[in-house]
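[scheduler] slot 2 assigned
[scheduler] job type: sequence-to-structure, two independent chains
[scheduler] chain ordering preserved from manifest
[runner] begin chain α
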Amino acid sequence: MKQIPMLDLKLEYEYMKSDIDAALRTCLDHQKWILGPEVKELEDKIAAYLGVKHCIGASSGTEALVMSLRALAIKLKDREFFDEADEIITTPFTFTATGDAILRAGATPVFIDIDPETYNIDARKIREYLASSQKGKVVGILPVHLYGLSCDMNEIMQLAQEFNLFIVEDVAQAFGGSWKGRKLGSIGNAGAFSFFPSKNLGGFGDGGIMSTNDDLVAEIIRMLLKHGGKDKYNVDHVGYNGRLDTLQAAVVLAKFKYIDEFNERRGKVAGHYNSSLKGINGLTLPKSLPDANHAWHQYTVRISNGSRDEVQKQLKDKGISTMIYYPYPLHKMKVFGNGRSKTFGNLVNAELASASVFSLPVEPLQSAEDTAYVVEYVKELS
């Protein structure tokens, strides 16, 4: 029976094998495993690609979020951490790391509902919260460009200007995506990216990178990731061992030359799904936005006709892999309970999405035959 995985990293490795193997051999030759030359080269190339002044490698996308927030706390409040009275607005429909990073930076996450069509945070509801009597001491917004699709950055940046808020973009799923021609991660005060192996640009383990145009934020981040100081034996801040490994930088650098090609391939798979699955009763297809260049990290559909578990089982029986991103909204998780977070409104759209979405394979090297196979059996579910 045909097997169609969500992602085929072996196939991708074979496609880039000569580049990746050469990068690894170079590391074996120079043996500079901590902050080797590949780290700086990758930082410079991604900064140029994004159109920002600074990129700083990190040990993971999660640490990239934490250190970006910490740097802003140090710059804006002259304190090591935010405090619980400081609120940072974000979405409940995301991976745990987004909300967790806010807690680790000392602040309180405020979960605001999503747009039911894009699954991204609803900027209109952010405005409602900022205008409400419930609003506490909001200091920033952490929008997540979910599944590769940009949030409405026009409205979010307008809110930041009106209410004097910072913006940290969570770009873990959207490397190469853009909003009105600007690369995601270059619009807010800082951006945080993940190089987890399953991402559009992934390494052979954990890794990430931070982007910013703010010289001081970049300087603080570079201290934080090396235990908190320019001199590791005489540090200024509570820091981390948060550096990007040379080996991971080398792998990502080798794969970086393929990012636009692979994102375009993902887009073609998504386009085939869009045209072939349109109009199926009970199946809501993903929405793009005219001002956004979608990176298609995931192709996520919503089912309103039948059991999601049963649909996934039927597809699995045909060898078609699916995944749920995400089965639990953050405000329902224990870690964000006991007063550690706030919610605005009933978050009904996030809860509906968690109960009804699933993602289909959108492997960039997926053959037209395999894509047609997925379409055939998804249609059978209607």
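[runner] end chain α
[runner] begin chain β
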Amino acid sequence: MSALKQIIKSKSFSSLIGNGLGALLGVFTFALLARLLPKDIFGPWLVFLAFYGIFETLRIGMVMNALVKNLAQAHSEEEEELVVGSSLFITLLLTVIYVIVITVLYFVFGAFNLFPDYLFFFKWFVVMAFVTAPNNFATWYLNAKLHIVSMSMIRIINQLVFIVYIWFVIQYKPNLHEVFVGYALSHLVVSIVAVAAGWSGVQHLLKYTRDYLLKIFHFGKFSMGTLIGSNLLRSSDTFIIGSSMLGAAGVALFNVPTRIIEIIEMPLRSFAVTALPQFAKLYAAKAYDQLRKEFERKAGLVFFLLLPISISSFIFADYIVLLIGGKSYSESAVLLRFFASYMAILPLDKFSGVMLDTINKPDLNFYKVLIQLAVNIAGDYIGIYVFGNLQSVAFVSTVTFIAGMLFGYRQLNKEIGVSFKNVIILGWNEFVFKIKSILKKTPIET
């Protein structure tokens, strides 16, 4: 039992449980809205999330990885405060710039009568930019400090508030306005909690320096580009499908299996959250051989952990889609089977990106995502306008992630000697070791 207890007490397991609950609540929220909202309302809501996600990507990309990396390598409390203050200053600066741009676009589009059906989105973009800022920064800070339970708590509170609002309000008033109000309210509540708990970094706002601002900016500019590319990589499917002959109904059908993928990614996000600070400390200590082996072991382990989930999703796709989306989305089952083919690839791709950031090569991570984005956009257009169906778009996703994975491991092999063969071998050995350790009730390292 000691082995099992050590696993339960580990940071990775805490992150897994927290992210798991958050992801399940997110899918439950999605399922509720899919059932309560007509497709002509649900589709635009998904389009709003896709567009707003681009801005969130700007803030996350510019700040989060730089904050996590620099906090992990800080040598004193004073240095930590400078990192937090500088990171928060950049976060607020980006928010103000974004609001100004959105305001200008709102009046320009209104004057020329462009996108009249979506013009009200811009007002909510501004609202969401402010109410989410403390909430988001708190999750980045808690991630960097490996306070996994607290980080998970604010994410879960966010989801629960939205679910309660859906149940008591949107169920009886199924319109976009109420969805926006509930979504903003859920983030506002969590932001207030984050400020009150001291997680938002507001108390360190004035503790910034020019050196740290530049350090975070130069690292973040590539990291931001990477995350923008990653967001566009996912959103491009929605944009292309929505603007094609498949329309809003096609967007809704495609997004059901996409949301299911979020559950599959739950263990991956959990391991990635704890991996970056650990990798950063090893790199700062110049323990390059240990860093390489730790990467190969962890990336391979998560690959084998996700493989059974990928296979199960393929086999039971019909039942999973029925559970999440209901009978009206039964067509999405075949899409989920296509997605299942690349689920197992995700950890290999994700960890290669984390490692490139760790070794101060965020530019290579950025180029990796650009390659994936180019493959995905070209493949989507070919699939829709040649074959005219959603299955071809889902198939392209597999090709996209394979392309990114191959580029990432080629670069890691050149930089620090990472071997794809070792990832599989060490990952399998670690997977078998942990299983045997649990069965034999012997202690293991977590």
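[runner] end chain β
[qc] chain β: The radius of gyration is 22 Å.
[scheduler] slot 2 released
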